[in-house]
Amino acid sequence: MSKPIVAIIGRPNVGKSTLFNRLIQRRQAIVHEQEGITRDRIYGDVEWTGLTFTLVDTGGYIPEDVSIMDEAIRRQIELAIDEADLIIFLVDGREGVSPVDTFLADLLRRAGKKHILVINKVDNDRQEVLQNEFFSLGMDVILTISALGGRKIGDLLDTVIESLGDVKMTMMDKEEEEIRIAIIGMPNVGKSSIANVLLGQEKSIVTDIPGTTRDSIDSRLKYYGKTYVLVDTAGLRKKAKVKENIEYYSSLRAHRAIKNSHVVIVIIDAMKGFGSQDQQIVHEVIEKGKGLVLAVNKWDLVEKETNTYMEYKQAISRLFKSLENYPILFVSAKTKQRISKLLPECKEVFNRCFQKIPTRTLNRIVQEATDYYQPPSVKGKNIRIKYVTQVGEAPLRFVFFCNFPHLIPDSYKNYLENQLRKHIDSKGIPIKLSFRRS
């Protein structure tokens, strides 16, 4: 059963992201005193009295055509209003009614959507008189709250649940297993464009301006009966180049998205090639034990000859040898070339992450490997591997029991990993080996 959708709208800097974070009970949306930080629609689930709904944070609405970004934010807000079952219209009690508030009130009336007028930054009972000015907007349901201090948040949630009375609410049952996919890459490689193509709608703002996406944006979709959560993230740059606080928090959320995902799609720009920062991102994904799919975007712009595909793939493998074990797709968000292959590939990688290899099979593989190539003697000690077993999933973890685990060279560990990969289906997943004394 799909959850009802409640959208928060308002002009810039009235506290929408602060309220969003308060209601979902975690710091998902970036909050900053600078205006215009939130740009895309950001989604989160809220539970109250055993029922859940989906909450949507939006950017600050500016009616005039100020810039390309403002126009894109307006489009995102209009899409949020269109899909919402209920609107929380947030205003600033300290600053009073502004022309933009009046414009938004008229916009909501024309949209014909249920709405609640919520006056933020009312920190105590003495400031309740601040609401009187807002009666001029002609709205029936008026609440005063403090999103920062948490004042009357329970009353707001009660009103939301009551206002959604005729909309079917979802009970907090255990949800079906979802595949979380983070879309990661450097700025301006096409992450949001690919996310929008996969979702079939303009969920994230796309411009030629690097750093357009700031928050990590979760989006759910059904694909052949399976639920996926796509997380579009801000572009990752070298730490030395991250100077602004806002970019720092965007980067922090992108790294958190990697940590919380099952599979990561790392996007690189076909025209720029597989650079050192791309390699660093791939290294982080593998180190964190996540499934990985590499997508080379803007493939439509590359001049092609007979072996261009294979030569490009080999060039990537030469720069990062481990990528021989991971799927590489050449795609184009603009022409939608091979975009349809991304989700099926991610699902296969996800399934491999959680496979269980029988202990008998593992020991047969290792026995054949050690018979063919014995562990080298180190410091006069003959190393004997006696037993191996799987101890974890996502990533696959294997423990080797032997007589001198601390003496096994890295080269032999790599040999054992390669032998395991030859015999088990491990495309796209990291393998972690550890060695213990038997």
Give the SSE layout.
Blueprint: E1 5-9, H1 16-24, E2 42-48, E3 51-57, H2 68-83, E4 86-92, H3 99-111, E5 115-120, E6 142-144, H4 153-163, E7 170-171, E8 179-185, H5 191-199, E9 217-223, E10 226-232, H6 245-260, E11 263-269, H7 276-287, E12 291-297, H8 308-319, E13 328-330, H9 342-353, H10 359-372, E14 385-392, E15 396-402, H11 410-423, E16 431-437
Parallel strand pairs: 1-3, 1-4, 4-5, 5-6, 8-10, 8-11, 11-12, 12-13, 15-16
Antiparallel strand pairs: 2-3, 3-7, 9-10, 14-15
Helix pairs in contact: 10-11
CATH class of the largest domain: Alpha Beta
Report the structural category.
Answer: alpha/beta
In CATH, the topology of the largest domain is named Rossmann fold
Task: Round the mean pLDDT to the nearest integer and report it.
Answer: 84
Radius of gyration: 26 Å
Tell me the CATH architecture of the largest domain: 3-Layer(aba) Sandwich
Largest sheet: 7 strands, mixed
**Total number of helical segments?**
11
Distance between the termini: 51 Å
Range of helix content? 25-40%
Could you explain the architecture of this structure?
By secondary structure, the chain is α/β, with parallel strands linked by helices. The protein has eleven helices and 16 strands. The strands form three sheets. Strands 1, 2, 3, 4, 5, 6 and 7 form a seven-stranded mixed β-sheet that branches. Strands 9-10-8-11-12-13 form a six-stranded mixed β-sheet, sandwiched between helices. It has a three-stranded mixed β-sheet with strand order 14-15-16, with helices on one face. Helix 8 links the parallel strand 12 and strand 13.
